[in-house]
# Entry
Amino acid sequence: MNIQENIDHLLEHLQADLCEVVDSQTLEALRLRVLGRKGEITTLMRVLGQVPPEERPAIGQLINDAREKAAGWLDTLAMRIAVHERTEALARETIDVTQPMWERRLGNLHPINLALDEILDVFTGMGFEAVEGPEVELDLYNFELLNLPKNHPSRDAQDTFYIEENIVLRTHTSPVQARTMLERKPPIRIVCPGRVYRADEFDATHSPVFHQLEGLMIDEDVTMGDLKGTLDAFAKRLYDPDIATRFRPSFFPFTEPSAEVDLTCVSCRGQGCRVCKGTGWIEVLGAGMVNPKVLELCGIDSQKYSGFAFGMGLDRIALLRYGVQDLRLMFEGDMRFLRQFR
Ligand code: DAH
# Structure
């Protein structure tokens, strides 16, 4: 085979192989095979030495032409492949805006907080300010200043968790009353929501941790009528104007006189049902006129001022509001239950 035939064969072979190239890698391999330092064309150049000197220029020219041709083909294909590969990469990296989103789980308020928000709305609308106090409380505020001296029999009824001899987990929100009276001068109008603790069973209606909302109003000439009017307005605003309140005489060391307050059963509207055990009433609060002894212990002149106070269980109200039967659901943190309140 002479050199011309060799070159023709080489170029034909190259053309056929170029048709098979699929990406820039196979193309580079081909370029190396033909134009590389040990490539086919370079090898031809070496043969030039064995050619008679007078034929060398012409044959050298042939080989150079072949090299340029091959390089031209390879470059053109390299450009096409680069464009193709870029287009493919762009298509691969494109965001599919029609792809459905994964579900974003937003949080929601706990049913007790939902009920509390509604209750606070009603009281702040009547001019009460929300105030909070510590859950780890001194015996002084939780008992002593509320007219519950050491060895007072009602202390037993509270099943207190003691941290130290004089430090307790507050058994009610009433200590916030005492703290506020010591800090401020009348007129005072506050509500105090919060967690409270008692060594109770954990069952469908009891929990060692639960929630209360305390109310306190102190001014000149505050009467039991103001207490009744306030709680009645509260019940009607929270539920609806058909709801009535009923006061039954009771006893608390920190109030005198004291009452237990019932609302028309919101479930049966007073007809009598399972929720109200057939009575038509549900008990939601304790209340009364602040005992003058408590006013004096907390630095308020009981000759000049009087006041009323009340304490309600928030959990009961939330259960009734959302028709939940078991108090434990409120504390177990089961997301399947909690997510229903959005
Ligand atoms: N502290 C009482 C309790 O936990 C509830 C209560 C009753 C609060 C009467 C008051 C009140 O402020 O006047 O059972």
User: Anything to note?
Assistant: The chain has 13 helices and ten strands. The two ends are 88 Å apart (CA to CA).
